[in-house]
Fold Prepilin leader peptidase/N-methyltransferase.
Amino acid sequence: MLPAALSATFLPIGLLAASPFIGSFLGTIIQRLPEGRNWTTARSCCEHCKTTLGSRDLVPVVSFAVQRGRCRYCHCAIDPFHLAVEIAAALVALAAWLVHGDDPPAMALACLLGWWLLALGWIDLRTMRLPDALTLPLIGAGILHGGLNGHALAALIGASLTWATIELIRVAFLKFRNRAALGGGDVKLLAAIGAWNAPDMIGRIVLLACVGGFLCYGVMVLRGKTGALWSRAIPFGPFLAAAFFLCWLIS
């Protein structure tokens, strides 16, 4: 009973405490992975003076606040991007705790899934790409999760059918309208959604993502940015990722 009690107490606390550090790591992935840069061993440095940063410069949230958003060496302004990702990762952990705080394994899984989706959505927002290095393992993880719960075949079928259906729609739209409605990365993210979720939940996630996208479009229209919108694509990945995480929490 004691290990279970300790797990119920300290695992949620540990996840909440670690979340800003996870966010800092995710920020590195978001910045470097799309550019093909080393995100595993390369040391962090100031973007302006290129000075290698020490541990005191890399404490999530705290370093930014203490240094007032400026490099300790050259005093140039620090991009608030990392701070935003650190806070977002902490909010993911907080949401998982609010929903699954009494079930540490479920909270841990929700955190891992949420952080993964946070990286995917943010990369798509910045680059209009969803890298295979994150989407394909997410599909595999969904099938593995299904297998651990006795639903490996259902997860595999869900991923395959979702991938085939959405890819068919994407290709048909491209052929008849001569423009892409979805990117290949969106198709793979939807396949991951199919691997992780029951069929009825897949439709809800897509619907919620579409509603979020239309609301965002409406806000941009009200702000007078319609011209820019008509001339470029809008990333769908962030809305899919957010809808996936939200539905996973409440399902």
Remarks:
- The mean pLDDT is 87.
- Residues 128-251 form one domain.
